[in-house]
Fold these 2 entries.
Entry 1:
Amino acid sequence: HSSKSGVTHFMCDNEEETLMSIRELLSFLPSNNMEDAPLVPCNDDIHRQVEALQTVIPEDPNMPYDIKDIIEPVLDNQYFFEVMPHFAKNVVVGFARLGGRSVGIVANQPAWLAGVLDIDASDKAARFIRFCDCFNIPLITFEDVPGFLPGTIQEHNGIIRHGAKIVYAYAEATVPKVTLITRKAYGGAYIVMSSKPTGADVNLAYPQAEIAVMGAEGAVNILYRKSAPEEKAEIIKEYEDKFSNPYRAAERGLIDEVIMPRDTRYKLIQALEMCHNKNQSNPPKKHGNMPL
C-alpha cells in the first residue's frame, strides 16, 4: 500500500519508529485549522548561499537529476520530512521549514519518469496540496515538468480528470504559494504546477528555465519535419534563444524574478515573508466541485 496503492503515507519498521514519525509530522502542523503554521526559532542563516546548486542541473536538458539535491540544501538545517516517498516517485511531497516557518514542498522529480505527471502523481500532489491548505501551511513548488505521461492506459483511466485535481487544489488554496521553475515547464503541465494563472503569489525561475508549449526539438520536428537536418538545427537554436528561456515569460508577467541557484534559500524565504500576511478567501458557496 505504500508503493502501489498510495493508501499509506509512511512505512515504519517498528512501533517506536511509527510513534516518532507521528510526532515529527505533528511538529509541522498547527493545533487546529484556525491557527497559522508553526514558527520556531531558526539558527540557520537565511542569507546562506548554496554554491553547489550552481552545478546540480545538467547542461543537457534531457539528463536526469535528483530534485532533492535542490530542495534539501536550501531548507533550515537541510532537513526534509518526505511524505509518501515510495508512491508515485515522479512527484516529491513533504514538510520542511524555511526561516523557522513550516512549509509544504511539492516538486517534480526528473530522476523518475523524467518528472512527468501521471494519474498517481496527480492524486498524490493534489491530496498533499489540499492538506496543507487545510492547516494554513504555505506551499513551495519546485517545478521541472516536461508534460503529462502519454499513452492509452493513462488516457483510458482519465489522466485529464486526475490532472485537473492539481489545478483545482492549487487554485482553491488560499495559503501563500511560491513556485520555482528549475528547468522545464512545458505545456499544460506548466499551468498545473502552481503557475500565475492558477493563483501563485510569487513565481521564480533559474536562468536555464524553459517555459514553452513544448521543447524546441519537438516543436521543430513537428513544424519543420520535411526540412534538412542542418536547417532544423538552426531553427532549434533560434527557437531556444527566442522562447526557451525565462525572460520572455518575465516580460509577460508570468515570472516575477530570475534568480541564481545559489540564492535560492534567501529568495524563497523573502517570498514567504512578503506573502506572510496574505488574507484571501474564496467566494461563499456550499462547497466546490472537485473533479473526482
Entry 2:
Amino acid sequence: MRIVDNERRRFLRKIAAGAAFLALPNKSPARIFSKPNSLTRPNILWISCEDISPDLACYGDDYAVTPNLDRLAAQGCRYTNAFVPFPVCAPTRSAIITGIHPGTLGSMHMRTSLRGYECVPPSYVRCFPEYLRMAGYYCSNHTKTDYQFSPPFTTWDARRGNWRNKDRPKDAPFFSVINFAVTHESKCWNIEKTIHDPAKVKVPPYYPDTPVVRRNLARYYDNITTMDKQVGDILKKLDDDGLAESTVVFFWSDHGRGLPRCKRWPYDSGLRVPLIIRAPKTITPGSVSDELVNLIDLAPTVLSLAGLDVPPAMQGRIILGKNKAPEPKYVFGGRNRMDANSYDFIRTCRDKRYRYIRNFTPSIPYAQTIPYMEKMPIMQQWRLLHSQRKLKGPQKLFFQHPKPEEELYDLENDPHEVNNLASSPSHQQILKRMNAALEAWMKETSDLGAIPEDKLIERMWPGRKQPITATPTVQIGPAQNGKVTVKMSCSTKGASIGYRLGGRKTWLVYEKPITLNTGTVLTAKAIRIGYKTSPEIKKTVQ
C-alpha cells in the first residue's frame, strides 16, 4: 500500500493538531500510589549497559563470551522479545525513568541540550523513583542519567554508589541502578587489536564483508565480554552481602548495537535488546519468555513489585508479579532528530513476526551524515565502497534515496530486515492492519513527533528561557505537646517538593503533611521537570 504525499501531509496535520501538550485528560499525579501492604519488600537492582543487542551466549550467540550474564539467565528469565521505544539512549532513558513514550513526553529529539533546552513533559509526569522514595526505599543511581532534562533533586537519594552507601538507612529496602558504559558506541572506534577472532564473526548481510568490518564487529563483542565481567563483580557484591535472595535483578540495554544501521535506526538491530530478570521465588530459574515487552514497562513493574499502585498516566505495563498485565499485540517505537542537525521522522509497529515502518520524511536518506557515527570504522568503510560502487545486494539498501514511505519485514524469514514486503500483494492485509495500529497508537499517545522542534521548544521554554519553579509555600500549624503539623504546596503545576530537616544533607520527597518537633529547622524547595529549581525557603517550626 503506497501512501501518496497528500495523504501523508493530511495525517501529519491530524497528528500535530491532536497532540496534547503538557496535559492529557483525566491524568493526575496526585495520590496515585498507596503504601505497601506487606512488611517484606524486595530490594531491586537494575544493571544497565549501553548500545548492545541480545548478542549474548545465553541468547544463542556462540561467538559471545558472557559467562556471568549466562549464569544470571540460568537463575532467572530471559526475554526474547524485549524492545526499547527509540534506538538511541536519551529518548529511551527519558521513557524508562517515567514509564511514558518519548513522543508523549516531547523528548524524542536526541540531545535536547544541543538545541539549548530541556524537555518539559506534561505536568503529571514524575521520575518514578520519587514514588519509591516516598514509600521508604533508598534510591541510588550510578551514574548515567541522560533523561533529556536535568534529574530533579527529588529523584535519587544518591547519584553515586549503590546499596552499600553509608547514607542508606539501616534495613531500608533499596532500588539501585548501575550503568555500565564500556559497550558504548565510542568504545568501538579503535579496532587495532581485538580479542575475539574477526575471522569467526557473523557479518550481517547489509554490511560489506571486509577485514575492517570484521574487526569492528569483533571489538563490539570484546566490549560485551568486558561488560559481562563488570556485571559479575556487581552480582558478587550482592552475594557477599547476603542479598541475592531478597533482591530482584534486572539486566537491560538502552538500545541495540552501537553500530551504523543499528543505533539510530528503528529496526530490530536498533530496538531489540537483552532483558534478563532474576526474581527469587517469583521467576522459575532458566525460564524464557517470548512476550512482547517495551522497556517503558520497567517503571510500572518496579512500582508494583514494591507494593505500590501504578500512576494511571504511565503507558507501560506490569510484566512481572501478581499484578502482571496481559501481553500487548504490538510494541511501538520511532526516531526523530539525531545529534545536532540530522532530522528524520519515523514511527514503527512490531508484533511477534512482522515489523511495519512508516517513513514520514522519505526524502531524507538513511545514510545522512551524522558526525559522531562517521567515526565508526564500519561507516567509513561502507561509504568508501559505496563511492567506489563496490556494494552488492542488501549492502546497497542503506544508501537508497529516497527512502520508501512504508516498510514491512517478516522477521521469521528475514531477521536482518533487508526484504521490504510493503509492495507485496500477499502482504497487503498485514500492512493495512499494522498501519492502522500505528496510527491509532500515535493518536492515543498524543505523539508530538510531527510538531517542528522550534515550535516545541517555544511551548516548553517561551522565548527560549527556562521557566522557574515557584518557591513552595510552608504552612505551620499550632504547636501541641511540642509538635507541629507542616503542610507544603507549590503553585507550579506538576512540581515536586523536597525538604530536609536540621543539618541533614538528603532531600526527602514531600507527599503529605508532616509532624515535626518544635524548634526543627525545615528547608524546602520545589522542581518541575524541565524547569529551574525554585529558590529555597528555610523556617524554624514553632
